[in-house]
Automatic annotation (TrEMBL):
It is found in: Cell membrane; Membrane. Its main location: membrane. It comes from Podarcis lilfordi. This is Sialic acid-binding Ig-like lectin 5. Residues 44-166, 181-274, 292-372 form the Ig-like domain.
Amino acid sequence: MPKGRRTRGLMSLTWEVKNPASSMATVTLLILTFLCKGLQSQHPGYELKALEAVTVQRGLCVHIPCNFTYSTSEDRYPEELYVYWIKDNGAGSYIRNKWHPNAGSVVASSDKDQSIASFAGNRFQLTGNLSEGDCSFSINDVKFEDEGQYYFRIEKGTLRFSYRVSFILPRVSVTELAEKPKILNLPEVVLGKSITLICQAPGTCPWKESWSQPQISWSNLPGTTTAQNHQHSSGSWTFASGFTFTPSLQDQGRALTCRVRYPAVDTTVANTISLEVVYPPQDIRITRPGHPDISAQEEKLVVREGDTVSLLCEAQGKPIPSVTWLKNNKPLNNNMQGSKDTLRLSNIKSEDAGMYQCQAENPHGSIRKNISVIVQYAPKLSKNPEKNTACWRKDNDILCKCSLHSKPPPQIHWQLDGKTVAENTSTADLKVSSSVQKNEVTSSLIWTGSPDGDLSIICLGNNSLGVYTMQFHLSSLKTASSELIVPLVVGLILMKVLFCFVFFSLAFWYSNWRKAPLTQEGRRKQKE
């Protein structure tokens, strides 16, 4: 019992909120005047320590801490101590069957037989341990009519005392509900990956009656909901709802709303978020700025030698994908690239032809697109030394060979002293044949008989990009014997080297064989 000087002392007035960040009320406690050691009123032994001002949002709850003592000299009755919290609104009330005009409206009491004001119902609850002088109380489902000043009263036998005059008394102010629900567990929303969001209703309160509990709903998106309510050790509840859905690209930027309705005060609050759906790169495209779109089916680009070409690679994705260019699956060096998403090929050569890859990637994946760059060029001499373009005499014949390469492959014609010889010509004194290997064409001419004089032979190769000519004069042609001397000498030297190598190899092998140890059978035969 809190009895004057014999009590353990006034309890520290600390409002212990079990979950301040998500309490049922966003309560702003305005402590205008606070007595650190209690108020010594004009009534010795009677002290009350309470908050002077409390602000709470409508529909939520509030806890009001309080400590009290009463005079020891008047504590001589064995009867039970009854306490009352009364709203000081000038109304009359029966207290323990006795009418008290202008006493106010009783909202909470430890007397189970005490009548409670109709507006209070069972929303006002004593929460403190009276035997330790704790007179704290709470208000649930706060309404505007709960506004006002409250005072504390005790009765014990013939002892009756109201802490009303000359005491610091709590005054409750009620504001409109403005706190929004909290949408928790909001990680990255990944395309095609199921996700669960949590909507938590404002406040942490007892909510003992189901009809007054917060009602949570989701809107603007198909999905499934599950209750995520949690009861704390204090008996209070936090109400929440889980919403599970699988995002699609159509959900990008879509508004998702969580609504919480408080039935006791018929009030609804809501919170809306805009979905940001992340996804791997897709819809990759390669274009040539300023030119018609490159055919997605052909996936190739035909250019001419000497051209300068820029290729732009773009892909959809969130976050925006980074782009890398490769050739034959190997990263390109920097001097072949412009910006990261643009490939620039300057003064194109035939060596620049090949398969190029554009790779787009972000943290959620990567994608590639290939494009074949085909370089066209006018006819040139063959790069193969074995296919040199030349003419020579052999006996009474003239033999000519002309090898050219180009893209597209060239057509080769011969002109003999100004007259054109058709391809694959075959007459008694003239034969023309040709072979094709990829972009290289080799044409051979055999002119039999005894042509002489200062006649000319021309090899002419052409395609859509240009013409190449090579001219020979009969008077300057060498005979095949002089042309073959050097190859013949080289051949003889090679044969001699090969013969020496084989001879010395056999000699070395025979010498080692003779030195090898003999078996017993071998020794016996050797003696015989």
